[in-house]
Amino acid sequence: MPTKDITNLKIGVLGGGQLGRMMIQSAINYNLDISILDPDKNAPCAHLVENFTVGSLTDEQLVFEWGKQFDLVTIEIENVSVAALKRLEKEGVKVFPQPEVIELIQDKRTQKTFYKANRIPTSEFVLTENAADVAKHEDKLPAVNKLGKEGYDGRGVQIIRSSADVGKAFDKPGLLEDLVDFKKELSVVVTRNGNGETNCFPVVELSYHPEYNLVEFLFAPAEITPTIEQKAYDLAKDVIEKLNMVGLLAVEMFLTQEDEILVNEVAPRTHNSGHHTIEANKTSQFEQHLRAILNMPLGSTDLISPAAMVNLLGEEGFTGEAKYEGMEECMQMEGVYIHLYGKKLTKPFRKMGHVTITDEHIDPLKTKARKVKETLIVKA
Predict the structure, then answer these.
(1) Which candidate among 116, 149, 330, 377 keeps its CA 20 to 30 Å from the CA of 12?
(2) Which residues are bridge partners to 204 per DSSP?
(3) Confidence band (pLDDT; 50, 70, 90) for 227?
């Protein structure tokens, strides 16, 4: 049986941010023809592909007309026109992840309802229509208030601890989730190709900024028991299979005090919790995503060495042309890999890059990660 020649395929990617940038770096190794659509003419991918188009990702007609030229369309952000992707499928263009999966995940309300309907463990919740509706559920406090749509990178999520906080509730359709008493926040990146072949990257442990809900540190592998690890893998596979999804899915989880695992949220794309895989795993999440959507054999996800990842966020109080302090000092450290995202302008807490740190031993790994966090600073 002849081998498929994937190098002749024309692939369109909706979104030209850092995830697209790192996807392109993997695509180059296979001579894949990648084109990008993004609303920002200065997006991180803007100068990396021959065919870069400036346009809205949510404009149905624009996305449809743009997408007709490709054999396959994929995403690096969820906020896209699902209606256009459904029309493209009818025209014979392959779309992965599938439009109905993107549509479900775009709204945290339908996402949580899906978990409940499919017996996927998650925190208890109620759907709310506005701030007044949230106020009717004071018996659930403290709780997490989430916007159904438009939340991204920590925005659209807040904790309402008491009736005194109800006034800050989101005045749009959303949900109110039980506040989970967790030991650890975990993530599993799981991949599934068109043949139904599925595999997982090793479980990682996440540490979030307490105010901005952005990942500050990631450690791989997570310090959990083999039993908990297997539970996490089984749960991630269960989610992607019940979605019947082709592509790569990041499944964020809570490990409770009772050693139960609950799904928090998922993202149907490459994800911040998988950036370390570029150096730390035999196959990166970006290559694995391409393998999955092209229905090629999935690569080994084995760790080469323990790793940490630090997000480079714009410093609070600085807006303007980005300047990086501490770069040289970090470059002198063994096992430190700096990834800048090509963003010219910084602003507080904007993701400007990340650093992967590798070491054979966990303690020095954590020490180096904290040193990098303190040393490499993004100012203006």
Answers:
(1) 149
(2) 187
(3) very high
